[in-house]
Specification:
With 334 residues, the protein is an alpha/beta fold. 11% of the residues lie in helices and 20% in strands. It has a five-stranded mixed sheet, with helices on one face. The radius of gyration is 19 Å and the shape is globular.
Length: 334
């Protein structure tokens, strides 16, 4: 299984035998447990990322800017703007989208839930395209609220300086499909990795207890969190590497995920209900692959938050979207 990004990428670095734990770790995990005291949920069948491999023979599509307030968490009060926005998509993506050079197979569909993510990978050329709130139009074109194009062999980390986003806005209109300003494919659990019995990269997850205007760079360059005491997006959670997994009676596939959480950890990249880990969406998979019989969404729920720790947050930046939520934990997405 090919890894996304180069070997020196933040995403592909194991945590090592004795990583430093953040002083806020216990406090943050306690706050997260108030939102949902279970372990990680696996997003396998919805709210995830379908990934389509493309090549020089894949039809090229024009992708239009989509401005539909009210899709998922998109609200004008949270920084989403109208059609006069200066960028709309990441610059390289916009250049392709305008002239119809984004490769999208005829059979491809975006995630059926409101986030409507989709990712396209051309291993031959080395490019990745990803979108959020995307959909196919009747004439075969597509439209999307976001669009990023980046190298499959790159670092997998975007810089805050790459985007003209202002404090208090969402970063989505400027290109990134993830609220933390990270590549959509970063940290995704891939079907082939589970079959091969080994994940060799950090995972990615969302939490409903993400911090307000605090993010950790690298890998995040923004955030949409809403809680003063929450977990900054970009922070890494690690499952205690000394934890004996035997009492949890995990399936062989679930053990693969748990071992990755112990060795590489998982990065907070977005806000979502509970604490979901993201896996590849197989909605219109041309090879008819399925997660059924391999992984279940609740496989890791019984490994609860006290078994995790927040790895030392070296560079916490006090910026981000100005999401406002009432004090106290809310039950699910806003």
């Amino acid at each position: 299984m090919k890894r996304f990004f180069n070997d020196s990428s933040f995403w592909n670095q194991p945590l090592g035998p004795d990583p430093e734990i953040d002083p806020e770790s216990a406090q943050i995990l306690e706050f997260m447990a108030k939102a949902d005291n279970r372990g990680f949920w696996l997003s396998l069948h919805k709210w995830t990322i379908p990934v389509y491999e493309v090549d020089r023979n894949t039809p090229r599509r024009k992708v239009h800017k989509r401005y539909q307030i009210g899709v998922g968490q998109m609200r004008r009060s949270e920084g989403y703007v109208g059609p006069n926005h200066p960028l709309g998509h990441g610059k390289e993506f916009a250049a392709d989208a305008e002239v119809g050079l984004v490769p999208i197979p005829d059979y491809a569909i975006a995630d059926p839930e409101a986030d409507s993510h989709i990712a396209l990978v051309d291993w031959e050329s080395g490019w990745i395209w990803d979108m959020y709130a995307a959909r196919r139009l009747e004439n075969g074109d597509w439209e999307s609220n976001t669009g990023m194009k980046y190298r499959a062999d790159g670092s997998g980390v975007f810089s805050r300086a790459d985007f003209a986003v202002h404090n208090g806005e969402s970063i989505h209109p400027y290109g990134p499909s993830r609220a933390a300003g990270v590549p959509e494919l970063a940290g995704l659990i891939m079907h082939q990795e589970i079959l091969e019995g080994r994940i060799e990269h950090k995972l990615s997850f969302a939490t409903q207890a993400a911090a307000l205007q605090r993010f950790v760079f690298p890998p995040a360059c923004w955030t949409d969190g809403g809680w003063r005491d929450g977990l900054p997006e970009g922070a890494v959670l690690q499952l205690d590497p000394d934890l004996d997994l035997t009492p949890y009676a995990l399936s062989p596939s679930a053990i693969v995920v748990a071992r990755a959480l112990q060795e590489y950890g998982a990065v907070c990249v977005d806000v979502g209900g509970g604490h979901p880990l993201y896996a590849e969406g197989l909605y219109a998979d041309p090879r008819k692959r399925t997660w059924d019989g391999l992984l279940k969404c609740d496989d890791l729920l019984e490994i609860k938050l006290p078994h995790y720790r927040v790895i030392k947050m070296e560079k916490v930046i006090p910026e981000g979207m100005g999401r406002r939520v009432p004090d106290g934990i809310y039950a699910g997405d806003e």
